[in-house]
Amino acid sequence: MEQYRTRSPHDGPRRGAPPPAQLPPQARRPPAGAERGPVRPSGTPGGAQRVRAPQPAAPARRGLPGPRLTGLGGGLFCVLAMYLLGWLDLLLFDASLTGYGVLFLPVCVLTALWVRDGDVLTAPVVVPIAFGVGLFPLTDGGAGLLARLMGLFTGLATQAAWLYGGTLLAGVIVLVRRVRWVRERRRRAAADPAATPGRPPR
Predict the structure, then answer these.
(1) Which residue, among 179, 166, 60, 186, has the nearest Cα to 117 in the 3D structure?
(2) How many CB atoms sit inside 10 A of residue 98's CB?
(3) Collapsed DSSP state (helix, strand, coil) of residue 188
(4) Rounded to an integer, what distance in angstroms lies between the CA atom of residue 90 and that of residue 162?
(5) How confident is the model at residue 82 (pLDDT cuts 50, 70, 90)?
(6) Counting beta carbons within 10 angstroms of the beta carbon of residue 90, is it exposed (0 to 12), middle (13 to 18) or buried (19 or more)?
(7) Distance (Å, rounded) from C-alpha 133 to C-alpha 155?
(8) Residue ranges of the alpha helices (H) in the chain?
(9) What is the rounded end-to-end Cα distance, in angstroms, of the chain?
(10) Is the distance from CB of 105 to CB of 164 less than 8 angstroms?
(11) How far is it, in rounded angstroms, from Cα 72 to Cα 55?
């Protein structure tokens, strides 16, 4: 009797049989129990995920501190402040004109800083008027209105240094602010010519 020989699966390929087709590495299945590597997200070449760089925050605009007053509002503030300081000087310092002149300087600075950019040129005009208004409580009005006016002109003449100093201080601050404002307007007009109608771009 003929005995059939069973072929073991571990034996090599038969002679004359074509070799099995080789699969690409991507199509090969990993053996059972093998650990898979990290799965890269698709959508970009090489599986790398594009990360957008954070946009830099816009720099905070640095402005002058305090409120923005109109020309009329700045004038009222300066006149009212000097009138109240005149009464305060009369009560605390016995109508000292030197003390009144010292108090006049910070009021000039605040007026020049707090007026808005469009009306900033009114500050040097307002501060001398406010200085004269504040002198009314300090003049001797016992002899009537004429004596009070004479005391006012005397105070203006003797305290002219404080008056000119405060006005000059306000003028310098206003000049610096005006130059900065004009430069900023020109920079904006150059960056966006459409924002200023009627003016051709340079």
Answers:
(1) 179
(2) 12
(3) helix
(4) 18
(5) very high
(6) middle
(7) 11
(8) 71-92, 97-114, 123-134, 145-158, 160-191
(9) 112
(10) no
(11) 43
Max Cα–Cα distance, the chain, nearest Å: 159
Phi, psi (degrees; rounded to nearest 5) at 28: -75, 135
Residue 115 backbone dihedrals phi, psi, to 5 degrees: -75, 140
In order of 107, 113, 155, the CA distances from 136 in angstroms are: 17, 26, 10
Token pair, residue 142, equals: 């016992």
Instruction: Give yes or no for a contact between 130 and 107, defined as CB atoms under 8 angstroms apart.
Output: yes
Measured distance CA(138)–CA(161) in Å, rounded: 17
pLDDT tens, position by position, 127-168: 999 999 999 888 876 667 788 888 888 888 888 999 999 999
Instruction: Establish how many alpha carbons lie within 13 A of residue 83's alpha carbon, considering only the half-sphere containing its beta carbon.
Output: 9
Angle among Cα 168, 135, 113 to the nearest 5 degrees reads: 35
